From TrEMBL, chains A, B:
Residues 48-146 form the Cyclic nucleotide-binding domain. Keywords: DNA-binding, Transcription, Transcription regulation. NCBIfam families: PRK11161.1. SUPFAM superfamilies: cAMP-binding domain-like, Winged helix' DNA-binding domain. The keyword Iron-sulfur does not apply. It holds the Pfam family HTH_Crp_2. It comes from Halomonas dongshanensis. Residues 160-233 form the HTH crp-type domain. This is Fumarate/nitrate reduction transcriptional regulator Fnr. Coiled coil: none annotated.
Length: 248, 248
DNA sequence: CGTGAAGTTGAATCACATCAAGACACGTGG
DNA sequence: CCACGTGTCTTGATGTGATTCAACTTCACG
C-alpha cells in the first residue's frame, strides 16, 4: 500500500504548522507553541469518499470539523421529505457550528468528492479557548462570518433573479478559490446541477438554461463541471443589477 | 419629570437578577455572584423611539445588545439601493453578533417601537467569557442558534410558497411570544406589512392578500396589526405542506 | 378633521416551474 | 473494446404563482 514516505507525509499533513491552509483556518492567529496545544486536540479522520456522510442530521453534536481537502454539502430534511441544501464547504472552512446550540447536528453533511477533514472535539476546543484568547476570537469570528454569509444568502434568495443568483454563485466560488490560492477564472464544480439548483432555490432546468445562456453571451465557458470565467466584470454586473441592455 | 420612585424602578430594571428575561437571556446559566460580574460590564442606554437606529450599517462594531423591551429590525443595503430585512429582534434576543468578524455592523438595526436594550461591550464580554465558562457556552449557543434559524429561513425563502411563508412567519412569532410568557394566540405585529414582505421575500400586496385569505378561511383574525390565531393546527398544516383540498 | 402613509383589492404580465423528450457521460459486465 | 444501462444534463413547450401597476380605502396623527 502506502510507502513509508507517503505515510509519513500523510501524517505530516495533519500538522497545522505545515498545513497550507493554516493562514485561513482556525489556528490562524496562534503562536507556534499554542498551535501545538491546538494540534493536540485534533483527531485525524479517514478520508471520506464521494457521497459518504461526515455526520447525519440528528446525530449528537460532538465536534466541529475543518475541511482539509475536497468539499462537502450540508442538507436539512424536513418532515415532508424534501430537503434543502444550506451550504457548501471548501478547504479551511468550519463545519458543524450550527450544532452547538441543540447538541445535535441540524443537517447532514456529505462529501461531494474524496474529502479529508480535521475533527475538533468541541468540549476540548471550548476549554482550550479559555486559555487562548486568539483561538476564542477566531472561533467567534468564524461563527460571525457564517452569520454574515447567511444574511447575504437570504438576500440572494429573496431579492435576486435566477440570473443574478447564478452569477453570484459563480463569483462566490471564484473568490473562495482565489483566497485559497487557486485560479479564480478556471475551476471545477464538485457539485451536481441539482445541488446548485437546490442551494439557489431554482429548478435544475433553470440552472442548466442560464449556464447555457451565459455561455452564449461569452461570459463563461462551461463544459460539464469545468468552469471558465471569460468576463469577470460582466459577471459581476450580472450578479448585482439586472442587465439593462439586451445582448450588450 | 420622573418621580423618584419611577426612576428607582427604572434603575432596578437594569439589573439582570430582577429582569424578567433572565431565564432567556445571555446570563441564563450564571450563579448570582457571576451575574454581578456580568452586570458590571453592561451599559444602560436611553430608550429608542420608533424608527430610531441602534446602529447603522458600516458603524464600527463595539457592542452586542440584548433587547429588554420592544422590538427591532435589521436591514442591509446593497450598492444599488434596495435593502433586505434580515431579522426581527424581540426581548432577550442578542443583536449585533454578525459584526464581530469584520469589526463593523453589516446592517442597520432600527427600533420598530419604543425599545430598550442593554449594551454589552464586546471586548469586555469576551474577556469575561474567559473566566465564566457558562457565559462562554451561552454565547456560543446564541450564535449557533442564530445560524440554525438562518438555515430555516433559507429553506423558507427557497422552497416555500407565499402561503407557507406567511403561516410560518405567524407561527414563529407566536412561539417566540409564548416563550416570553405572552399569549401565543393573540399578539400585536410591531412591523409594517412592507417589513413582513421584505423579510419573507414577497411583495406587500401578496402579504396583504394572503392575510385576507387566511382571515376568510377563519385560520386567523387580523385587524390592522392585531393578530388572533383561531386555528393553530390548521396554520401549522398550512406552514408545512401545501394545503391539499381547496377550502377544507 | 384633514392629510399622508399604510393597507387592501383587482387585472394584466412575467419569471420561473413543471412536464416531456432527447443527448451525453460513465461505469459495468459481456 | 463495445454494448448497455443509468444517472446527469440540456433543451423545448406549456402552465402558474407571485409581481407589478393602478385605483381605492382605511388608519394614525398633528
Amino acid at each position: 500500500m502506502a510507502s513509508p514516505v507517503s505515510r509519513r507525509s500523510l501524517l505530516h499533513e495533519t500538522r497545522c504548522q505545515t498545513c497550507s491552509l493554516s493562514s485561513l483556518c482556525l489556528p490562524l492567529a496562534l503562536e507556534l507553541e499554542d498551535m501545538d496545544h491546538f494540534e493536540a486536540i485534533i483527531r485525524r479522520r479517514a478520508p471520506l469518499k464521494k457521497g459518504e456522510p461526515l455526520f447525519r442530521q440528528g446525530d449528537t453534536f460532538t465536534s466541529v470539523y475543518a475541511v482539509r481537502s475536497g468539499s462537502l454539502k450540508q442538507t436539512t430534511t424536513e418532515g415532508n421529505g424534501s430537503d434543502q441544501l444550506t451550504n457548501f464547504y471548501l478547504p479551511s472552512e468550519l463545519v458543524g457550528l450550527d450544532g452547538i446550540d441543540e447538541e445535535r447536528y441540524p443537517g447532514s453533511v456529505v462529501a461531494l468528492e474524496t474529502t479529508t477533514v480535521c475533527e475538533i472535539p468541541f468540549d476540548r476546543l471550548d476549554s482550550l479557548s479559555e486559555e487562548l484568547p486568539e483561538l476564542r476570537t477566531q472561533l467567534y469570528r468564524s461563527m460571525s462570518k457564517e452569520l454574515r454569509d447567511d444574511r447575504r444568502m437570504m438576500r440572494l434568495l429573496s431579492r435576486k433573479t435566477a440570473d443574478q443568483r447564478l452569477a453570484s454563485f459563480l463569483l462566490t466560488l471564484s473568490e473562495r478559490f482565489r483566497r485559497r490560492g487557486y485560479s479564480p477564472y478556471s475551476f471545477r464544480l464538485s457539485m451536481a446541477r441539482a445541488d446548485i439548483g437546490n442551494y439557489l432555490g431554482l429548478a435544475v432546468e433553470t440552472v442548466s438554461r442560464i449556464l447555457s445562456r451565459f455561455q452564449g453571451q461569452e461570459v463563461v465557458a462551461v463544459s460539464g463541471r469545468e468552469v471558465n470565467i471569460l468576463d469577470m466584470q460582466r459577471l459581476t454586473r450580472l450578479a448585482e443589477e439586472e442587465e439593462l441592455g439586451a445582448t450588450r
